[in-house]
Amino acid sequence: MASLQRTRSAVRFISRAISGNSRAPFTRQGQKRFLCSSNKSNSRLAFVSSEHDEIYKRSINDPSTFWREQASSRLQWIKPFTKVMDCDMNIGQHRWFMDGQLNVSENCLDRHVEKNPDSVAFIWEKDEPGTHETLTYRELLKMTCQIANMLKKHGVKKGDRVCIYLPNCPLAAATMLACSRIGAVHSVVFAGFSAEALANRITDAGAEIVFTADQGVRGSKTIQLKRTVDEAVNKCSGVRHVFVMSRTGADVPMGKNDIPLEKAMSQESTECPVEPMNSEDMLFLLYTSGSTGRPKGIQHSQAGYLLYTNLTFQYVFDYKPGDIFSCAADIGWITGHSYVVYGPLSNGATSVLFESIPTYPDPGRYWETVERLKINQFYTAPTAIRLLYKYEDEWVKKYDRSSLRILGTVGEPINAEAWHWYNEVVGESRCTVVDTWWQTETGGIFIAPRPSSDNSAPKPEFATRPFFGVEPVLLDSEGVELRGNNVSGNLCIRGSVPSMARTVYGDHRRFLETYYTAFPGYYFTGDGALRDEDGHYRITGRVDDVINISGHRLGTAEVEDALDNHPDVAESAVVGFPHDIKGEGIYAYVTLKEHATITPENLRLELKELVKKEIGSFAAPELIQVAPGLPKTRSGKIMRRILRKVAANEFEDLGDVSTLAEPSVVEGIVNEHKKIVQ
């Protein structure tokens, strides 16, 4: 009883420390609000670490009380909620903070403008080397209100869908916030997808308004955004208006329904009242990419998503007032939604919008930016890390990185070699590396090394431990829970978390079949994981990335980890291919580091021996291709279906490759494959 009381006191302490006066009402424009002021105390961070285990247990055993306290203290409510949760994992039902009303834009902007109007909301690190622009919370609120008023003038109402196809810039974020301010639903599409991919997303969402720019720039390359939108809109029957931002000033064709964005904004007031939104109203749609079949619109709601991104942003990244946080993701991905826009802004933080690529104008771009902007937390994908460690360490060491405290990774498991390079070279072995696991469907970080109660260093290749409220479960193929440590199985989640996706837009049956049918009563992540002797989690890859070799089921991630340990290998991808004797054989694609001199023949011999040593002879790849690159989506994930088809000699049916970051890579892979199998 004493322990339980102590834990309750601890959670109340968090709430008070975060909010100051957690439930104090205040009057603004004649309306009562229930306010949480953010970030008044730093002592709570050390306190949370010391009490982590007890707080985590309570978040699992008494989720209603835990999340009530967090929602009441961290968010500003227009109308307080009456019931915390109504969830049923058997039918994929997630309903949180019922009867409550708030506005996401107000939580991200207005409450901070009232206290610190001139604090910096965004630093826009533009594509042009050495350039950046800052935008204060006051300026961002004015911009947001102008866009919101412009949308209302053109007939956009609560519940309408708005498609955003813009560069990674403040206007894009302001458009997201403007939609949330008036209750419209935004659907951000990464400004690099093809016209066909964009049209599919516009049509599925039923969007009548599209935002784009004349052109985009990335790595000095010009991207014809307006041209792409014109092609897409010609395939869609319902688009009424296209707002066009001027990014480069290029002279682009403007049709009768095209409207210059900045000119339209300039005619609008810089004040716009917020629309009260129910907790479970839709906030945004985000379409998964890189897979076959029609787009899958993941639907997220208001309060639960905002609360969870707010909480995880602060604690996973050890954010303190005055820090400069940089997430290198584009806002077209869930990482950009949660940890460029909503998580940072709801905490009153300063967030960096990175428009360029990590190798422009040279491989030191990230680290020059860290030095110039004095970045404290840096969050990027393992794909980018592996790309950069192909180059000489001098590209890192020539820049001052003493401001860094936290180094984060996101998007896929990071191999040990890349982790050590990130930790030792970039972080000088003094920064905490947080390898985070989560998904578009979870909305926010589910497993990460922070916060924690132990002081041990994070483990390479381990996402480590679940965040508050998240209960991972490992199940075997029959759905039986694997208890204890030193086990591996299908990674599922028991119990609801506020940020989880509510449905697939327009297709709830697909939502249930994808995530809740395989293992009834659980959310099935689609990933495999192992839990080690310390109870820490390592993601082993998608469970469908399993090769059955003569009856041995082998995860592709295991083989890739072994291949990546070779000093000349920058990155690898392993797939299965039809084998007359074994059923499946292993086909490995590897890319080399910049200065590798080893011959392909010697490399193949050494890699086979390395896999035999680390896993066993049965796991040695039958075929190894030294590839010119790997086919990746714009978010950096490897499109394995293409690699599987190449390995199976199915060259005529590779599907749409226009959504790849570098479509030309596919032709090189096919040509190399033909040489190998001749």
Describe the fold and architecture:
The strands form 10 sheets. The chain has an 8-stranded mixed sheet with strand order 14-13-10-8-9-16-17-27, with helices on both faces. By secondary structure, it is α/β, with parallel strands linked by helices. Helix 3 crosses helix 4, helix 5 packs across helix 6 and helix 5 runs parallel beside helix 12. The N terminus is likely disordered.
Strand content: 15-25%
Task: Give the termini separation.
Answer: 73 Å
* Low-confidence blocks of residues: 1-31, 35-47
Radius of gyration: 24 Å
Beta strands, count:
34
**Can you give the helix content as a percent range?**
25-40%
Q: Give the overall shape.
A: globular
Strand arrangement across the biggest beta sheet:
14-13-10-8-9-16-17-27
Q: What integer is the average pLDDT? A: 89
Q: Sketch the major β-sheet.
A: 8 strands, mixed
Number of helices: 21
Backbone structural class: alpha/beta
Chain-wise SSE layout:
Layout lengths: L1 H18 L5 E4 L2 E4 L8 H8 L1 H10 L1 H12 L8 E3 L10 E3 L2 E2 L1 H10 L6 E6 L6 E5 H17 L7 E4 L5 H13 L2 E4 L6 H11 L3 E5 L2 E3 L2 E3 L1 H9 L7 E5 L12 E3 H6 L10 E2 L3 E7 L7 E6 L1 H14 L7 E4 L6 H13 L3 E5 L10 H9 L3 E4 L1 H7 L5 H4 L8 E4 L6 H11 L5 E4 L11 E2 L16 E2 L5 E4 L11 E7 L9 E2 L3 H8 L7 E9 L5 E6 L3 E4 L2 E4 H9 L4 E11 L3 E10 L7 H15 L8 E4 L13 H8 L16 H14 L1
Parallel strand pairs: 6-19, 8-9, 8-10, 9-16, 10-13, 13-14, 18-19, 18-20, 20-21, 21-22, 33-34
Antiparallel strand pairs: 1-2, 3-4, 5-15, 6-7, 11-12, 16-17, 17-27, 23-24, 25-26, 26-28, 28-29, 30-31, 32-33
